[in-house]
Amino acid sequence: MYEQIEAYVKHLIKESTPERTVWNVEKLRQGKPSNWNYIDGCMITALLAMADITGEKAYFDFAEGFIDWFVCEDGSIKTYEPDKKTLDDVNEGRVLFPLYERTGKEKYRKAADLIYSHLKCQPRTFEGSFWHKDIYPDQVWLDGIYMALPFITLYEKYFGDKDYSDVCGQIDTVRKHMFDEKKKLYYHGYDASRKAFWADPESGLSKNFWLRSIGWFAVALADLLEILPDGSQRKKLEDIFVELMEGIAPYADEETGMYWQVVDQGGREGNYLETSGSSMIAYAMLKGSRLGILTKDYAAKGSKTFSGIVDKYLSFKDGEMNLEGICLVAGLGPENNRRRDGSYEYYISEPIVKNDAKGVAPFLLCYTEIMRLG
Q1: Predicted confidence (pLDDT) per residue in 165-209, tens digit
Q2: What's the mean pLDDT in 24-52?
């Protein structure tokens, strides 16, 4: 199976260019050329991890060539639109650090400086949390934690003052407002102003627990804990991470180890076991166990989830591999898109696709952790 997975990945990169990636299903459906975006960023992150674990040069060469195409010598980035003030566009920047370390190309450092300077202008809530996007005023989404905070942490580690207080403070705010003490799960979104149509007027919270949003948060914490130095700030994030993993584990499907699109409503009509979020949770469990933050039984839980995804949604036919069961996209609003209201009916209504990087990338990251188990 491992050989087939790696053959599949090599097929994907062979069919992709910086201007058209076969794993960005949203762009393909829109008929638009690719740009600097978080979906490709997730895939390049996964390819660099694949290069590290397999030693296969083709993965690194594609990743470096891909980013090299976007980043100009002066550090400017083709198609990057900082005026949109969207955290999503920060995510791809995290690959600049390992590429700079490996190649020594000064333009990667300049590009990281550019993104970091724009983040300094990102609007914030009254408590200091980034708005998810300029079009989502005062809104904090779990997705955004993954999109921006690992980048900031890597920047502080490589080029900054190693001040991680902002990162840890924003995660502490998420824990304060978005964690449900009874369900032990995190809500998808929080509106600090309580003005969004989808937000509860008292708590500011969205209505449900969307799996991939929790997955983004879990992966962010696992990655941050690998970067942060020992100390009181790291210990607090460890506690939040352990609590998160302990909270979601009981919601796993008993047979497959996978998790449901709407996490706490397994078996309800229309709900389904979803690939991307399940891969993210499995990756976080496997990595957390490897780092010694989670107990060894979490490695077993993550391995079971990975196997469940393989059995249920991974298929090999006529020399082709497909990874299915991936929610294409889900969000909250904006005001002119009230269909995205955070309801159960909304989350199960979004398209389910195959081979999209939002599922493929975390699946590959999960695969690299399985490989590390030996």
Answers
A1: 999 999 999 999 999 999 999 999 999 999 999 999 999 999 999
A2: 96
pLDDT single digits (tens) 314-362:
998 877 889 999 999 999 999 999 999 999 999 999 999 999 999 999 9
Q: Which amino acid is at 344?
A: Y
Does the CA dihedral 138-143-144-145 come out positive or negative? positive
Q: Which of 303, 351, 364 is nearest to 325 (CA)?
A: 351
DSSP state of 83: G
Distance, in Å, from the CA atom of 279 to the CA atom of 276, rounded to the nearest integer, reads 5
Residues contacting 148, CB < 8 A, separation 6+: 87, 90, 91, 119, 122, 130
What pLDDT score was predicted for residue 88? 98
Among 228, 123, 220, residue whose Cα is nearest residue 175: 220
Four-way CATH pick for 2-373: 1.10.10.60, 3.30.450.20, 1.25.40.340, 1.50.10.10: 1.50.10.10
Q: What is the dihedral of CA 94, 110, 133, 17, to 10 degrees?
A: -60
User: Is residue 74 among the annotated active site residues?
Assistant: no
pTM over 0.85: yes
Interval 144-166 mean pLDDT = 97
* 326: enclosing H helix or E strand: strand 326-327
Q: Where are the domains of the chain?
A: 2-373
Residue type, 144: G
DSSP 90-133: GGGGGGHHHHHHHH--HHHHHHHHHHHHHHTT--B-TTSPBPSB
Q: Which residue, among 309, 366, 277, 353, has the nearest Cα to 24 in the 3D structure? A: 353
As beta bridge partners, residue 326 has 353
The answer, yes or no, to whether residue 291 has pLDDT greater than 90, is: yes
Give strand pairing partners of 101.
none
Catalytic residue among 88, 89, 143, 191: 143
